[in-house]
TrEMBL record:
Alphabetical UniProt keywords: Signal
The name this protein goes by in its record: Microcin C transport system substrate-binding protein
Keyword match Signal: yes
Main location: periplasm
Family listed: Belongs to the bacterial solute-binding protein 5 family.
Cited InterPro entries: Peptide/Ni-bd (IPR030678), SBP_5 (IPR039424), SBP_5_dom (IPR000914)
């Protein structure tokens, strides 16, 4: 797990996709934008209230990255992009029109654009560029860059293509203003989320490299691109290391979103293939300064190495208020064995979360029971009110029990529970035409055994997958876990070449256009989309549009309840678990503001290197003490 801005940015992508602007200020220039009411800062945002505005600059943040890399272009399906780049957003290199807030959901503040406005019918939005915005080569960021970036990203990036599906044109209306035009009215979040557009340098990408070869933005590259953000690539070793250097004359350093942040002079990422080796590197120091821990077992048992005991490594829990992602075993409907909903329900019945949580996770995890966990958008009970009205339109295409039973996941709370749920799974298989013969679950017509393979990318995946595999085998399923290297894992998931894979679907407290990339029929066959399940359901497509074109907050909540309920009753994913905390362990070389943003838990960009602490650690561990 990498940290710094890459870590923060990944959390924000999970946490702040959006949906639902207020019309009160339509067609007036606005700075801070919010989809769920006014920002706590109002329209006079000066800086985040948790940062140290006098935080010193300097020092090096060392991080470990998994696998390898072969590209500095993260916005295409080809290649494995290097640490510091992200497929949605700007990462360390590029700025976006506006920057998603770290301490509030569905809120953005000015960056390349200093303001935006939109008409009251939500048919377009205009962004006004900050005159000071410039590239690292000193050239200004122009409306041509914005328009070119929009067209390139919509054509080549699966995420941006679905996110901006209703945006038809980007047109310069002055030397500082770009108008984005929509093909439908009433898409309430679309004006705001155009601020998520990353801006790329048109003149660089359309130019030639040192050898005179024309660059191609649709292909991978290992030529360090020109950027605009706080860092640029200082050096790299193909596939094994990349070093980022802070730009001393960064144009936006004094903007409110940047004050007291991006304090490390250098960010170094070292690639290590083996997760255990990465862990050992962290315990010894030098390669990994901050470890974002995901393992309950390790968090509970493994933090007893010498540096912890000496107080040189700090272990700390940061609570978060952001919505919890749906994490689960994704069942690939492109495979024929998963196309029957009864089979998918049976596979859900087999997962014994309670035993896993007790024996493997030290009771620290909570079962996830909604795609919008931790928000008012999560469905519960039976459908009623406006949600019921929405679902009634599709009653003949939905499971009858959706209207009469509350959705509940199996609870293995007694010795008898395992027998009960495994029998229920066997009964569902029987209804779908499968029977147990000689201890094997076989197709009643062909005699072929039911098989599934869980794809993993690290030996640690065995902790999650093996108990489930063992339960599946109890009902005669030929189940197995296959570990592949990280690059192969990325390529196979991008091309949907798997039976089952662990997926994570991050949501926000205001969902919208991004839902197309998760669930829509169009995304199902698009390599690199987040529709890992391969959902092609007209009802889901209709509900996604219902969410996107919700008329107000109450309408959005009802539509999202309906979408959540249909997804749950379709059993596309075997839900796993979540924790409303971020676990960080870090070498004691940092200055950290007393307060951290409760929404995302921790903003690593607000930390800084304490030179005295760093020097003391270096002397101590270099000398072998």
């Amino acid at each position: 797990m990498t940290v710094g801005r890459t870590f923060l940015r990944s959390m924000l992508v999970v946490a702040t996709f959006a949906g639902g602007l207020q019309a009160a200020f339509a067609d007036e220039w606005r700075t801070t934008s919010s989809l769920i009411g006014e920002s706590k800062y109002g329209n006079n945002f000066q800086r985040y209230d948790y940062v140290n505005p006098d935080a010193p600059k300097g020092g090096t943040l060392n991080s470990v990255a998994p696998g390898t890399f072969d590209s500095f272009n993260p916005y295409i399906v080809q290649g494995s992009f290097a640490a510091g780049f992200v497929p949605f957003g700007g990462g360390l290199l590029y700025d976006t029109l506006m920057e998603q807030a770290t301490d509030e959901g569905s809120t953005s503040h000015p960056l390349i654009a200093d303001a935006y406005k939109y008409p009251d019918d939500y048919s377009s939005v205009t962004y006004r560029l900050d005159r000071r915005a410039k590239w690292h080569d000193g050239k200004p960021i122009t409306t041509d860059d914005v328009i070119w970036s929009f067209n390139v990203l919509k054509a080549n990036s699966p995420m941006y293509s679905r996110y901006f599906e209703n945006v038809t044109d980007a047109v310069a209306t002055s030397d500082r203003e770009v108008e984005f035009r929509f093909d439908q009215k009433g898409n309430r979040e679309l004006p705001k989320i155009l601020g998520d557009l990353v801006v790329l340098p048109k003149h660089w990408w359309e130019g030639t490299d040192a050898k005179g070869k024309k660059r191609d933005v649709t292909k991978p590259t290992q030529e360090p691109p020109l950027g605009s953000a706080a860092y640029k690539i200082a050096s790299f070793k193909p596939g094994s290391e990349i070093v980022w250097q802070r730009v001393p004359d960064y144009w936006a350093a004094k903007l409110p979103v940047k004050i007291g942040r991006e304090n490390f002079d250098t960010q170094r990422f070292t690639y290590i293939l083996d997760e255990n080796a990465a862990w050992q590197a962290f315990t010894k120091g030098g390669l990994e300064d901050i470890n974002a821990e995901n393992s309950s077992r390790r968090w509970s048992t493994a933090y007893d190495f010498p540096a912890i005991k000496a107080g040189d490594v700090i272990k700390k829990e940061f609570k978060t208020k952001a919505p919890e992602p749906m994490q689960g075993f994704v069942l690939n409907l492109r495979r024929p064995q998963f196309q029957d909903r009864r089979i998918r329900e049976a596979l859900t019945n087999v997962l014994d979360f309670e035993s896993m949580n007790r024996t493997l996770f030290f009771g620290l995890n909570t079962r996830t029971s909604s795609y919008f966990q931790g928000t008012e958008l999560a469905s519960s009970g039976l459908p009623q009110g406006k949600e019921l009205e929405i679902l009634e339109q599709y009653r003949d295409k939905l499971p009858p029990e959706l209207f009469t039973k509350e959705f509940k996941l199996p609870v293995y709370d007694s010795p008898q529970a395992e027998r009960r749920y495994l029998k229920a799974a066997v009964d569902l298989f029987a209804q779908a035409g499968w029977v147990i013969k000689a201890g094997k679950m076989v197709n009643a017509k062909t005699g072929q055994q039911f098989k599934l393979e869980i794809l993993g990318r690290d030996p640690s995946d065995e902790v999650i997958a093996n108990p489930y595999v063992g339960s599946l085998r109890k009902i005669g399923i030929d189940a197995a876990l296959r570990i592949v290297d990280p690059s192969q894992y990325v390529n196979r998931t991008r091309s949907f070449d798997f039976d089952v894979v662990t997926g994570m679907f991050g949501q926000s407290d205001s969902p919208g256009n991004e839902q197309r990339d998760f669930w829509s029929s169009k995304a199902a066959d698009a390599p690199g989309s987040r529709n890992l399940m391969g959902i092609k359901d007209p009802v889901v497509d209709a509900l996604v549009d219902r969410v996107i074109f919700a008329t107000d907050r109450d309408d959005l909540v009802a539509a999202t309840h309906a979408l959540d309920r249909v997804l749950l009753w379709s059993y596309y994913v075997v839900p796993q678990w979540h924790r409303p905390v971020v676990w960080l362990a870090y070498w004691n070389k940092f200055g950290i503001p007393d307060k951290q943003p409760a929404y995302v838990g921790a903003d690593i960009d607000s930390w800084w290197i304490d030179a005295d602490k760093e020097k003391a650690l270096a002397a101590k561990y270099k000398s072998g003490n």
